[in-house]
Amino acid sequence: MRDNRCVPNQLDLSSLRLTVLGGGPGGYEAAMVAASLGAKVTIVERQGLGGSAVLTDVVPSKTLIATADTMTRFTDASALGVRFSADSKVVADLDRVNQRLLKLAMEQSSDIRATLERLGVRVIIGSGKLLDELRVEVEADGDTSIVEADAVLLAVGATPRELPSAQPDGERIFNWTQLYNLREIPEHLIVVGSGVTGAEFASAYNGLGSKVTLVSSRDRVLPGEDADAAEVLEGVFKDRGMTVLSRSRASAVERTDDGVIVGLADGRSVEGSHCLVAVGAVPRTAGIGLEEAGVELSESGHIQVDGVSRTTASNIYAAGDCTGVLALASVAAMQGRIAIAHLMGDSVTPIKLKQVASNIFTSPEIATVGVTEEELESGLFQGDVVKLSLNTNARAKMMNVKDGFVKVISRKGSGTVIGGVVVGPRASELIFPLALAVTKKLHVDDVANTFTVYPSLTGSISEAARRLHVHL
Q1: The CATH number fitting domain 173-279, selected from 1.10.10.10, 3.10.490.10, 3.50.50.60, 3.40.190.10
Q2: pLDDT of amino acid 74
Q3: Most buried pick, 107, 243, 361, 403, via CB within 10 A?
């Protein structure tokens, strides 16, 4: 990547004009930091502040999942000694669920906008296009204007990838942004795609009471994740009545009078009432003047960036899903903050992907951080692994948690914690001590010798670390 950019410290911070295209986590976090440091910031967003993460993706989907988790707990309550009277039946009112989650999304978006405006950020709801490195053409409310900038941050996000033979209509065939149009629980939802998005929605609608068929082109669900975690999740799916069609590639989705037919590449077909197509995302980088401004793209259409979020054009940075680094809101926000730190001459630490903790909000949840066991097996890293099933954990037994585990990975010889996996309830919270250990290069003894509450699920993290003790 060429380095033809001006030196950030040469910019007059009090008069620096920053234009941000995209109001998702990468865009609004960058705008907040820049404005707090004195820059004159304009942010241009098509939908509303928060972008797809807040309005159509993370916030609404995880709110839906929270409702599904509650349903699952009711379903499993009999094992805890809770019973319902003969006329009691727990059902989900999907219309109310969707109204609630969309309301929460709009409230979150409004909160973000209020914070930005309080910091002096100019907010434009519209679309933007680069004319060159320093000028952005903005269309809003039918009018076109030119915004002059000393620097630009591109945080334009991504959009659901669509199959030519499975076009979503928002009524029977959906992408993940359209599911919130549903008024009733689908009788039989077919989910095409077994990656994170497909697995999360399959888990959620299974918990809400739908019959679910998950179509996976690979030999297991979550092909890019920890194999042990994927095995546990697939077992839970099947135990809860979900049909998982492995090594089954969908070739087409056809709408019928009262449902859908999903055709498979081997000639089979599956009939259902609705279909969610979750086969990845494509960056929103077409038609926004990147070539004219000298911003280079990868073959996949993602914006090429370095460790401090710089593109190949002077004073143009990029953050979030449009960069193809990691499709996580936390990573987008960090990229945005790093970009502004570099632009404004502040101290900068390039993003370190091995320190990123991520979570899949299925039931059970799957959280990971750092080096993977697959990387150990390939010889990329040398390490030791201890995996403890949660079925031996006292708190897990009290909660009737039967599925899940804790896995801790340490560097061979030194005993430094370099990775971890948690599968279980609230794994998104439980991964934090392991993420802290990886980031701060803690020794397994540091983790093992830290007090945990008894009984607690974190006790299994401490025990796994104890078993990795290096005897001197």
Answers
A1: 3.50.50.60
A2: 86
A3: 361
